[in-house]
Amino acid sequence: MRGQGRRVRELTAALALAVIMLLGAACATTAEPASEESSTQAEAETVTAPAVRSRLETVRERGRLVCASLTDTPGFGYLDEAGNNVGFDIDLCRAVAAAVLGDPDAIEIRVITAAERGPVMQSGEVDLLVYVTTWTTSRDASWGNSVQTMFYDGQGFMVPKSLGVSSAYELAGAAVCVNTGTTSELNMADFFRQNRMEYNPKTFEEGQVAFEAYKSGACEVLTTDRSALTALRSSLENPDEHIILPETISEEPLGPMVPHGDEQWFDIVKTVMGILIYAEAYGINSTNVDEIAASDNVKAKRLLGTEGSFGQEELGLDQIVGQTVIKLVGNYGEIYERNLGPETGIDLPREGSRNALWSNAPCTDCPKGGQIYSQPLR
Amino acid sequence: MRLSLTYQGIPIWRHSRILSWTAQIVSGILVVAAVAFFLSNVSSAMVQRDIPFGFSFLNREYSTPISEHLLPYEESDTFAYAFLVAATNTLMVSVVGVILATMLGIIVGAVQLSGNWVISKVATVYVEVFRNVPLLVQLIFWYILLLGLPPVREGIILFNAIYLNNNAGLSFPWPEGQQRPGLWLLCVVLAIALGIVTKMLLERREERTGRPSCPWLGAIGVVIAGSFVAWLVWVAIGDAPYVMSVPEPAGRFGHPVGGYTISIELTALLVGLIIYTAAFIAEIVRGGLQSVSRGQGEASRSLGLGTMQTLRFVTFPQALRVIVPPMISQYLNLTKNSSLALAIGYADLTSVAKTMTQTAPAVTIFLIIMGIYLLYSLTYSLIGNLYNRHIQFTGG
Question: Chain A partners of B22 at a C-beta cutoff of 8 Å?
Answer without folding.
Answer: 17, 20
